[in-house]
Amino acid sequence: CGGEWIGVEWSGGAGAMNEPGRGGASGAGAYAPRHAPGGEPAPEGVPVGIAPQQQQHAHQHWPRLAHGVQQQFSVPGYGTQAGYVGGDVGLGLHQPAGFSRHLQPSHMQAQGSQYTREYPSYGSQTSFDRTYAGAYGAYPAREAQLGSKSGGTPASGTGSGGTAAMHGLRRRDNAQPTVGWSQSGASGAFASQDSDSRFHALGNLFVMLAAVKNHAAAWWKQISHDFSLARAFHLYIRPQTAIYILMILVPCFFLLYAESPSAKSSRSAEALPDAVSKNVLGVSEALDHSASVRENVPIAGAGVNGGDRPGTAVIAPGVSSISIGPTEVETISTKGGVSLVAVCMNRHSTLEKALPSWLSVKGVEEVVVVDWSSSPPLEDKLRGTSDPRLKVVRVENEPKWVLSRAFNLGLTMATRERILRVDCDYELHPDIMAGHPLDGAQDQPLSQFYAGNWRNAKNENQIHLNGIVIVRRADFWKVLGYDERIQTYGWDDEDLYTRLEQFAGLTRMNISYDYVAHIQHDDTARAQSGVRFVEVEVDFNRVLLGKLDKWSRIMLKEEEMKPSQYDVVTSSGGYVVLRSSHRPDGLIELTPESFAREAWNTGLGRRLHDEYGTPWDVMVTMGTAQKEALLEQLMKADIERKKFSVDGGEDAEASELAPAGVVIVHVQHGLGNRLRALASGLAFARAARRGLVVVWERDSHSGALMGDLFNTTAARVCVLDKFKPRWPFQEEVKWDAAWTKVHAYNYMETEGEGSRKGEKIANEDGTLIYFKGAYKMESPLSVWQNENNALRELLPYIHPEVAKLVSAIGDVDWSTVIGVHVRNRRLTDDIDSVDPTAAYGKSATETIDEWRAKSSYQNFVPRMREEIQKKADTKFFVASDTVAVLDKLKAEFGDRIIFIPRVCDDRDVQCVRYAFADIIALSKTRFLLGSGWSSFTEAAERLGGMKVYTAGRDF
C-alpha cells in the first residue's frame, strides 16, 4: 500500500484465540506491539492466529512458542494464554512488521504474558509494552491504544478459518499515509497514539467477503515459514491468492485516496477532536478526552471561576460523555509530574483552608477537584482562584456521597504520571512528594505506593488521614481503581490498598504524618449523611465485600457491573459539569437482605465487644435495635468524657484514655421495685458517663416486659427481655476475656454466691458494671432527685395501651384530686407460686407484712373525710391491689372516688399495665395518701414529686 507499514495483526477468525473444542467461535483479540517513531523498536512482529488445521505445522516449526504457551496459567479459551489442548488451541506467533524479513519464531509473547500477574485469562499480556487483550479487543495500554467495547464479540464470519478484518490509518508529519490491517474474529477496532502525543492511527472494522474463508488456509499453505513474506507475494500468486490480495488492496487504496495530501492538510491537530467526536470509526468518545487531545487544544475564555486567566481544558470540545473504567481510561498516556486529586461534597470551609496548601506542593502540575453535588456549588468558593493548574469537575444530582465513584472520576480526569489523592479536609506540606519518592522510571515496574495508616495515628485527629495516597496512575488503574460497589462509608481505602498489594505486586509504605494534617471536625460533618457508627460501617462493607467477586476485569464484563458513566452538561475552560447516566449497584443491592442484616448486626456486636468490653453472652439476646441504642449511648458518653477532660475534671486523664463503659441494671421483683432500680440505673449511667443496658425479664412478679409499658425503641433504651449469663458468671469467663473486666454486684441476697445487698458500687474506668436488684444502687452517683428526673424523662415514651388507660379517666381537674394508694394484701395472699420468705427473706417478709397491716383501706377513710371537710370539692383518685377495695370506697364516698375500672388485680401483662396507669394518675394528684414500705407508692412519688403521707405513720 506504500509508505511504512504499521504492522499486521491476525487473531480470532483464523483460529488463534479459539476455546478448546469450539473452533473459532471465540474471537478474543491478541495485541499490537508498540511502534513509536524514533523510539525503541517494537518486539518482532505481531501475533498471528493459526487455523486449527495448521497447528501441527506450527508445533513443528515454532516449538518454543508452543512451549511458551504451555507455561501459562492453564486457563484455556482466551488468546495466547490458552494452554495447549489438542488441536483447537489458538497459538499467537510473531510476524515481522515489514515484508522484507523472514517469519521468525518467538516465545517471548507467551513468556511475556507471565510477567503480568493480575488477570492471566485475558489474552496476551506482555511486559514489553503492558499490552492487554482479550475480551476488550487489542490495545497496548502504554501506547494509549483502545479496544472498542465490542472487542470481545465474535464476528459473524468467525470460525475455523473464518476471517474478519480491521484496517487503520496512520498519520505522521511529512510522511505518506500508511495502512495496516489485522485479521480478527472480534468485531472491535483500535486506535493508537504513540509517544509524540499525536494521534497516529484510527481503526475501523471491515468484514471481509465470505470468500476469504475459503482461501485463508490455502494462502498460508503456499508460504513456507523459511520464505520471506515478500517472496511469497512474487512466487505464489495464484487466482484465489490474487482475489485475496485485491480484497486487501482495494480498501487500502481507498483509504490512501481518502487521506490524500489535501485532505491531510485539512485535518490539523486542532480539528482532530471534531473528527473523532463524530465517532465515524466506531471508537468510543472516551478517546476525545485523552491527555494529549486535551492538552493540545487551546481553550480561550474565562478561568475555572470566571477569572481572567485562560482555562486549561478539562475535556475537549464536542465530548458528550465520559466513562469510568480500564477500557476507557487505562490507555490514556500521561505526562510526568503530579496530579493532586480531591473530591468534596459541601465542606466549603475546609476546602478554603486546604486549597492553598495543595497549590503549594512542589511538583504538582494540576489540581483536580471533583465537586460531588455540593450545595451551593464549590465554584462559589473557588471564584477568583487564578492558578491555571486548577480544574473543577462538578457532578450534579447525586443523592448521596459515594467516595469510590467520585475518586474514580477524579483519577479519570488526571493527566500526570503520579497521583496525590487527598480528602477535602487535608492540609499538606510543600515537600510531601519529596518525602515520599516513587521508585522506578516511567517504563519500569513500580514496587511501592504510599498510604495513610490509622494504626500510626498519634491522636484521634490523625486517624482520619487513612485516605491519603501517593501512587502511580498506571498502577491505580491496573487494579481498576476504587471498587464502585462500596457506596457507603468505610473500607473503600483499605480495599484499594489490599488490591494494590495483592494484584499489582506493590509494597504499601506509610505516609509520614509530618507532611499532612487533618482539619478537625466531628463525624456529623461527614459527606455521608446519616453515618452514625463509623467503625461499624467499615466492618459492614468489609464483610459484604468479602462475599462478592473481586473488583476485576472478569466481573466488569457483566452489563450490570459496568462502572459509572456521565453525560457532559457544560464545559468551559477548567470547569466542567457532568450528570450521571449510569450508576452501578452498591453492596447492599448486590447482597441478599438477610445476609446484609446479619453482617450489620455482627459489626455492631464486634464494636461493642472489642471497644467497649461488652461480653458476647450479654449480646446473645440483644437485637439490632438494642445494639444501635447502646452504641449511640456509648458514643455520646465518649464525647462527654472528652469534654469533661478538657474542662479539667478530676478524672480528666483517665477519661481521655479510656472509652466509656457499660452498666447493666438487672431489675427485680414487682413494678414499683423495677421502676426504682431502673431510676437508679439511669441516674448512675448518666453521672458515670456510661452506656446503660436494662435487663427486664418476665417472671412471677411481673408478667409485663418493659416494652409492654414503654416504647423503648423510641426512647433509645437498650432493654433485654432475657439474659443468658447466670450469676455468679464463673463459666462465662472461661471463654470470653471480656468477663475479666466485669465488676458484678448482686443485691438479691437470697441468690447467695456472694450476693450482698447494699454493697458499695465502684465506678472504675475500663470495667463493665453489672447490678442486680430491686433497690437503688449504693453509689454517690445515684441520688434521689437525679433518679427521679431520669425516670420522668421516660414518660413521653409510655406505651400507647397504657396511655389509653390513663386517658380513659376523662377530663379531671387534678388540682382538686388527692391520690390514695391502698396496699391491702398480705404477702401470703399476694403472688401465686411465690414463697415470700424465699423471695424476700424472713426479716423483710415480716417488715412488709407489718406495714401492710397498717394499710388496710379502713385506715384511709378517716383521713379522707378530714380532707373533704377542709375543701368541699375534694376528690380522690384511688389505686389498690384489690378490685373490691375500689367498690367499697366508691360506696363510701360516691362520685368523689375516681379510678380506672378493671376486673384485673393479678400480675399478667394487662394487670401490670393497669398498675402502671394507676401510678401515672397518682403522680398527677395534689398529694398522696400512701402505703408504708411500698415501692408502688414510691414510684408515684418519684414521677409526681408531690408530698406523701404514709398510712400507719402520718395518719
From TrEMBL:
Superkingdom as given in the UniProt entry: Eukaryota
Composition bias type Low complexity, residue spans: 28-45, 147-157
Domain Glycosyltransferase 2-like residue range list: 339-453
Pfam families membership: Glyco_transf_7C, Glycos_transf_2
NADP found in the keyword field: no
Chain segments annotated as coiled-coil in the UniProt record: none
Ranges of residues in domain Galactosyltransferase C-terminal: 466-521
Stretches with biased composition (Gly residues): 11-27
Listed GO MF terms: transferase activity
Disordered as annotated region, ranges: 11-45, 145-166
Protein name, UniProt field: Galactosyltransferase C-terminal domain-containing protein
Species the sequence originates in: Erythrolobus australicus
